User: What shape does this take?
Amino acid sequence: EGLFVEHNVKRGLRNADGSGVVAGLTRISDVHGYNKVDGKVVPDQGKLTLRGYSIEDLVNNAQAENRYGYEEVAYLLITGSLPNKEELDGFCERLGAFRHLSDEYVKEFPMTTVSSSIMNVLQRADAITPEHEIDVAISMLARLPRIAAFAHMASVAKRRGSEVHVPHPTPGLSTAETILQVLRGGMEFTRDEAMLLDVMLMLHAEHGGGNN
Assistant: This one.
């Protein structure tokens, strides 16, 4: 215990008083989980804010209109403002246009990108340069469903000694629907499943602010 104090060793991602360790600085999101009262950490109702908007409002507004909200959140995070209908439709169309993966990438994927961590796979799936950050972000968002599916299928295939097969995404689907479609090999999912996955994607859309 004395060595932990002497060297300021963190217990997981916590300070000695139970408060969270600062792991990054961002103006894009904010995660609130506790208050300090008389020097003690007191748990509080969790709050996640993206570009000044409460995640609860973002999720509830999409759910109230019975629509998928992840693409709206992605637009908000990338541009800093919520899209109007025309902007959102255009953004979704652009995502749809980028969903395809090249035959070369598909051919090399199982040998070079198998990993138990989907996030590591996505981070290695494309090069990022300052000049093309927006284009790369949109490209990666669009290809996320099939890349994630390949990562999962390749891992399973490696264990079983089988071949990897992931179908081409159907145009016009949301990101949540596309993920389920390519993972299950077709439209074998319900609206409720897709809506639930959409909410999960919204909650994890911006990870720079902490453990959302």
Notes: The CA atoms of residues 29 and 50 lie 4 Å apart.
